[in-house]
Amino acid sequence: MAPVLRGLIRARAGGMDDGWCEDVVQETLMAIHLKRATWDSDQPLRPWVYAIARHKLVDAFRRRGRAVHLPVEDFAETLEAAPEPDGIERRDAATLIDRLPARDAALLRCLALEERGQAECGARLGLSPGALRVALHRALQRLARLRQEDGQ
After folding, report:
1. How many angstroms separate the CA atoms of 111 and 135, rounded?
2. Which residues of 75-112 are buried (b: 16+ CB within 10 A; e: fewer)?
3. Predicted model pTM
4. pLDDT surpassing 60 at residue 152
């Protein structure tokens, strides 16, 4: 059975090295041995063995993963820099935020324009985390209404 399994696994392994394929063959043989009592002797043996081999091959691919690791230093010159924030968009957002009630405006300025964390903004405005989420939701609703009124 081992030569047939080796051929099957190498054919489906997609160029993996022989050691890796042999590990999968051995795992498959162990699984067949451990699960031999589940085979129905009234059914053909080959589909049962192939199903076990297929599952072991999938398990091996999952363990191996598909991540590719390359040193960033080799590409530092060609990587794009983070995009600069658009000054016009920030100005328009600030103008719209200024039309909100003071608390809503302060919250949105802290979170969106100053890009501070929720904990810091909550402490600055005296809001618990739950109250901050509720206030943020309401402020965003008011902001959306203002944008609709302006036709933006």
Report:
1. 12
2. eeeeeeeeeeeeeeeeeebeebbeebeeebbbbbbbbb
3. 0.46
4. no
